[in-house]
Task: inverse folding
């Protein structure tokens, strides 16, 4: 990821209107993915640009940036006033919600394709990620209750191991770094790692594994994780 962002930065710095830039791929909500990053571009003063606007620079950079393999950059001018606090790739957003995850996964791509077909819109994208592998774990609540363990304790323990639990923040003079709790990579490669996860119950001196003997009835591997919400984004452009 850092190598691809560096390739984008090298192309951006070749433009005569660019003064400097800063690039980051750190974990920031809601784009909490290692495959997402941000580039902040500083342009030269307007008096030195000869009437060239930020939008003109964006249009000028797009063809060269599109030739960089393995990564895609969405650019937009900085707004003085915004009405949305969500970090977005583009200026406008459309939220599509559905209680049925399968139905959402079916219609969200269709909506994106329809928006991309509109000549009034550019840079249409979506944050939907439904192609990843997942595991559906069916918990035997009766067995868990005998150990004094509730569903929330199981959820918290699994998130501590496989999620992105922020446990601390390290501050330096120039930056800050979030400390994330997780298991080692070798314990995240298969559903068999669940057998090594133990949950502490309220029953004295008792521990319980959610995938241990008799604890979980079954688990279904290779299921895509449900996404109850999809965000479709696009930038409006005028036609002449």
Result:
């Amino acid at each position: 990821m850092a190598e691809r962002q560096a390739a984008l930065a090298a192309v951006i710095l070749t433009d005569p209107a660019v003064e400097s830039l800063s690039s980051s791929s750190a974990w920031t909500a809601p784009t909490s993915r290692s495959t997402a990053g941000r580039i902040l571009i500083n342009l030269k003063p307007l008096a030195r640009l000869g009437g060239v606007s930020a939008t003109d620079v964006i249009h000028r950079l797009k063809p060269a940036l599109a030739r960089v393999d393995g990564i895609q950059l969405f650019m937009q001018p900085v707004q003085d006033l915004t009405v949305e606090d969500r970090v977005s790739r583009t200026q406008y957003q459309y939220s599509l919600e559905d209680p049925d995850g399968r139905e959402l996964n079916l219609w969200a791509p269709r909506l994106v394709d329809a928006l991309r077909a509109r000549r009034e819109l550019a840079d249409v994208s979506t944050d939907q990620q439904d192609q990843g592998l997942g595991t559906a774990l069916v918990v035997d609540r009766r067995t868990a209750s005998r150990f004094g363990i509730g569903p929330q304790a199981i959820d918290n323990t699994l998130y501590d191991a496989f999620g992105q639990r922020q446990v601390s923040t390290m501050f330096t003079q120039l930056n800050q770094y979030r400390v994330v709790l997780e298991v080692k990579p070798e314990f995240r490669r298969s559903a068999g790692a669940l057998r090594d996860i133990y949950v502490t119950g309220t029953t004295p001196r008792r521990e319980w594994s959610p995938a241990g003997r008799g604890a979980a009835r079954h688990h279904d591997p290779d299921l895509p994780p449900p996404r109850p919400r999809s965000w479709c984004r696009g930038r409006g452009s005028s036609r002449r």
Residues 129 and 187 are 23 Å apart (CA to CA). Helices lie at 2-12, 46-49, 54-66, 101-116, 141-146, 151-162. Residues 101-116 form the longest helix (16 residues). Residues 27-33, 213-218, 221-240 have pLDDT under 50 and may be disordered.
